[in-house]
Amino acid sequence: MFQKIALGLVLAIGLIALLQATAVAADKTHDGIVVSAAEGKLVMTDKDGKNEHSHTVAATTKVTLDGKDARLVDLKKGDAVKVTTDMEGKVLSVAATRAKG
To answer: Which 8-state DSSP code applies to residue 48?
Structure first.
């Protein structure tokens, strides 16, 4: 009897771990180019400069510029950007790089 309970517990823990791994894997990233950035809103295109769209960005969202902590308003038109969202489209992180020169 104890072995069945232990086996059931192990299987339940394994299922929970699998579901959490699936949720993490469901995060989506896409690369593009900054059109504009203001407090709470990022407007960007795809890498080819097409498909302009915007993201609402919470004040607590992790934003980096050239690998260093930044604020959304630090991003400039033309910066390359990678946006990571969860399954519902909530922005989890914004990572931008600025061309040198």
So the answer is: T
Total domains, the chain: 1
C-alpha distances out from residue 82 to 19, 46, 64, 86, Å: 26, 10, 10, 14
| The model's pTM | 0.73
CATH number of the domain to which 44 belongs: 2.40.50.140
- Report CA-CA distances (Å) from 9 to 3, 20, 37: 10, 17, 48
Percent of the chain whose pLDDT exceeds 70: 79
CA separation for the pair 66, 61 (Å, rounded) = 16
Query: What counts of helices (H) and strands (E) characterise the chain?
Result: 1, 7
Domain enclosing residue 87, as ranges: 28-97
Q: Can you tell me the distance from the alpha carbon of 6 to that of 2, in angstroms, rounded to the nearest whole number?
A: 6
